[in-house]
């Protein structure tokens, strides 16, 4: 499990592609790999991956075809910056909301507004997922737990403070970029339960 509080930014060092599998070598800040063991879970842009090997501050991960098809990982290339979070431990503060690291879908950035000391990003998700997105609800974008702003049909925005921009890759965001989305599990459960009872929220 993860908390959605991004612990830092790492850089893709190498990508090796084979049929149905991609292997990533990702360079982390040296103080963030202490105590890492083979088999540990790390959130890479919101996707839970398993450490397969360590070489100093380089950690290695494999992603299967199903993961590549559901996420933005297939487009990663050397030099790309990614958000990361190591798995939560019992007793850790939950500053965001609980995440599984299982990406539900991707979204496109369709607009960016940068007033002084603020940044607002607008995203568009596939219509089928819009039913789970509510103003002031939780959502995870590239592994970061964020509060939803305005919602219009299958578009929503988020407002980012300077600290979030500093600690994540969102400062580099560009219109047209794809991001990983994990829907809040509690919201999904409530919406699906109401749907089974006949109180469905139609997809926009």
UniProtKB/TrEMBL annotation:
It comes from Marinobacter confluentis. This is Riboflavin synthase. Catalyzes the dismutation of two molecules of 6,7-dimethyl-8-ribityllumazine, resulting in the formation of riboflavin and 5-amino-6-(D-ribitylamino)uracil. InterPro entries: ATP_synth_asu-like_sf, Lumazine-bd, Lumazine-bd_dom, Riboflavin_synthase-like_b-brl. Its EC number is 2.5.1.9. Keywords: Repeat, Riboflavin biosynthesis, Transferase. It comes from the Bacteria. Pathway: Cofactor biosynthesis; riboflavin biosynthesis; riboflavin from 2-hydroxy-3-oxobutyl phosphate and 5-amino-6-(D-ribitylamino)uracil: step 2/2. Residues 1-97, 98-194 form the Lumazine-binding domain. The keyword Mitochondrion does not apply. Lumazine-binding repeats lie at residues 1-97, 98-194. The lineage of its organism: Bacteria, Pseudomonadati, Pseudomonadota, Gammaproteobacteria, Pseudomonadales. PROSITE patterns: LUMAZINE_BIND. One of its GO terms (molecular function) is riboflavin synthase activity.
């Amino acid at each position: 499990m993860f908390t959605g509080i991004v612990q830092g930014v790492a850089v893709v060092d190498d990508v090796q592609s084979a049929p149905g599998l991609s292997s990533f070598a990702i360079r982390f800040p040296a103080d963030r790999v202490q105590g890492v063991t083979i088999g540990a879970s790390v959130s890479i842009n919101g996707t839970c991956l398993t450490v397969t090997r360590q070489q100093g501050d380089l950690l290695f991960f494999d992603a299967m075809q199903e993961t590549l098809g559901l996420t933005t990982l297939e487009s990663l290339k050397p030099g790309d910056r990614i958000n990361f979070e190591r798995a939560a431990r019992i007793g850790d503060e939950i500053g965001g909301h609980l995440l599984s690291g299982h990406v539900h879908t991707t979204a496109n950035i369709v607009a960016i507004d940068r007033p002084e000391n603020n940044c607002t990003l607008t995203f568009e998700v596939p219509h089928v997922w819009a039913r789970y997105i509510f103003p002031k609800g939780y959502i995870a974008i590239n592994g970061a737990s964020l509060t939803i702003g305005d919602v219009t049909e299958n578009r929503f925005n988020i407002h980012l403070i300077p600290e979030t921009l500093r600690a994540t890759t969102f400062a580099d965001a560009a219109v047209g970029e794809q991001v990983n989305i994990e829907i809040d599990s509690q919201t999904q459960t409530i919406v699906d339960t109401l749907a089974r009872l006949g109180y469905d929220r139609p997809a926009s």
